[in-house]
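Input structure tokens:
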């Protein structure tokens, strides 16, 4: 007799009494909106979702079921190796150990690899990892939290299913900004929304925050007749495609969760603010004041005025090809690329600039160049802990014995500096005058940027800027150019201690000037 649990994943969950990581049996009554996803036969699925809704648990269990009963292996990715080592022990391992059938099926059991029977595996990998795609092959790619993942690595994984008949691609994530990451993938799908029918006027509708909430009575209401939408009505909703596509797409919002009251959602909005609320509660992208329309932002910054006069500041993003942005306090007048050390030296000799250079990934190369041109080059390290409440902190500024060794280094808070540069563009304080052909390349790098929200272990939001493709070099070079401008505006490094008599510090009118260390050492050697 046919065991139906071997042909139906949701029936397997119900018949076997499968439990989540907390030991609670999973069900499709309150979680009816997950049933269609569980039944999905389409190998290509996109889920644009809110947080804490059960999608990661469902996807993990689907990967197990496909391994056990279809003998199909899955590569399950998370943004980083750190996320893997947090997610697997606290969620996956607990689910697998809580459920007897799964526990008995494990033939290999490590954080990065689960062997299911003798024919299939589930690999857990971080996208920000040196060994991410390499040579692992699979039948299914399950990409969790793609908006916080490395898109280049996710793209590289696509070839891992070339020899599979199934070629599954399951994407799920909280969104970040519009038309990027999971939101862009959802727009390519059939865009299924959860329609709820009002028992009063019989109108079907997708619940929306502004249209379906009575903020005075704190209840859900029909956007057509104003009658109350009950929890039962929300639970009885159903999926409907709103577009045509071969990809199955689902949008899940906490407005669909019958166990969450309007009061609870209002409290979340007040506590975390709009960005977190849209991304993690409504499962919707959030664009900050139009700032992510980078093409408009940059086109509006174009000028015909002469902006070449004044001391030059240059920012360089280091890589095999080095991208640079050059300008004065009046604006950016040149962008370009160089590859060799000599080409960087030629820029220095041409402009005698204040130059901020990315210290990584070629730190030795950058440090050697900085030692040769200490009056021009400062190396930047992104470190949010150093500046603390400031955007940047300059090494050597305090004049202390401990800090003087850090002369030639600046630590900056990446998110705050990027926010500030965007603000400067939008407020008309940063202008550009560059050739049209270079302008398109410049815009293209900015258009990969998206601002995302992560929730830390203390349940606090943390905002980050990431690139959807990694081609953000002109954007980062602009950030370094802006940091150089801040150094340029100060002109000199002054400290307040009037008792200093060391050879590396000169007394000036307003305090003391820290001299370049190489200059002092050369003088002492004479």
């Amino acid at each position: 007799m046919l065991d139906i649990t071997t042909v139906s994943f949701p029936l397997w969950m119900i018949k076997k009494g499968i439990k989540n990581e907390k030991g609670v049996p999973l069900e499709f009554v309150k979680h009816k909106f997950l049933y269609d996803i569980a039944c999905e036969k389409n190998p290509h699925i996109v889920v644009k979702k809110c947080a804490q809704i059960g999608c990661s648990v469902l996807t993990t269990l689907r990967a197990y079921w496909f391994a056990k009963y279809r003998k199909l292996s899955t590569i399950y990715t998370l943004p980083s190796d750190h996320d893997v080592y947090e997610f697997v022990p606290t969620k996956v391992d607990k689910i697998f150990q809580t459920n007897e059938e799964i526990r008995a099926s494990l033939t290999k059991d490590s954080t990065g690899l689960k062997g299911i029977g003798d024919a299939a595996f589930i690999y857990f990998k971080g996208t920000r990892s040196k060994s991410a795609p390499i040579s692992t092959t699979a039948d299914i790619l399950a990409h969790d939290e793609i908006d916080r993942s490395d898109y280049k690595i996710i793209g590289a994984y696509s070839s891992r299913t070339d020899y599979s008949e199934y070629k599954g691609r399951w994407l799920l994530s909280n969104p970040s900004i519009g038309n990027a990451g999971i939101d862009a993938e959802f727009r390519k799908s059939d865009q299924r929304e959860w329609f709820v029918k009002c028992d009063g006027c019989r109108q079907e509708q997708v619940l929306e925050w502004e249209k379906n909430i009575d903020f005075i009575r704190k209840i859900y209401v029909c956007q057509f007749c104003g009658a109350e939408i009950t929890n039962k009505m929300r639970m009885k909703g159903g999926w409907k495609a709103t577009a045509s596509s071969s990809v199955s797409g689902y949008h899940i919002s906490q407005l669909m969760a019958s166990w969450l009251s309007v009061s609870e959602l209002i409290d979340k909005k007040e506590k975390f603010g709009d960005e977190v609320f849209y991304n993690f509660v409504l499962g919707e992208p959030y664009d900050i004041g139009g700032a992510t329309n980078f093409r408009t932002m940059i086109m509006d910054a174009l000028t015909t005025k002469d902006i070449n006069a004044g001391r030059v500041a240059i920012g360089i993003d280091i890589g095999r090809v080095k991208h640079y942005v050059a300008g004065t306090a009046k604006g950016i007048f040149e962008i370009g690329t160089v590859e060799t050390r000599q080409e960087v030296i030629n820029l220095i000799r041409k402009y005698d600039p204040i130059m901020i250079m990315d210290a990584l990934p070629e730190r030795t190369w950058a440090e050697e160049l900085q030692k040769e041109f200490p009056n021009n080059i400062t190396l930047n390290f992104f470190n949010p802990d150093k500046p603390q409440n400031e955007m940047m902190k300059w090494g050597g500024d305090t004049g202390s014995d401990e800090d003087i060794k850090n002369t030639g280094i600046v630590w900056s808070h990446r998110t705050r500096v990027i926010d500030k540069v965007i603000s400067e563009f939008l407020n008309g304080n940063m202008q550009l005058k560059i050739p049209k052909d270079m302008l398109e390349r410049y815009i293209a790098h900015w258009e990969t940027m998206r601002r995302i929200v992560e929730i830390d272990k203390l349940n606090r939001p943390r905002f980050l800027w990431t690139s959807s493709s990694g081609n953000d070099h002109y954007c980062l070079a602009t950030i370094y150019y802006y940091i150089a401008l801040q150094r340029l505006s100060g002109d000199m490094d002054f400290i307040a201690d009037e008792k200093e008599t060391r050879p590396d510090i000169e007394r000036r009118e307003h305090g003391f000037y820290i001299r370049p260390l190489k200059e002092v050492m050369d003088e002492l050697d004479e």
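The radius of gyration is 28 Å. The chain has 18 helices and 25 strands.
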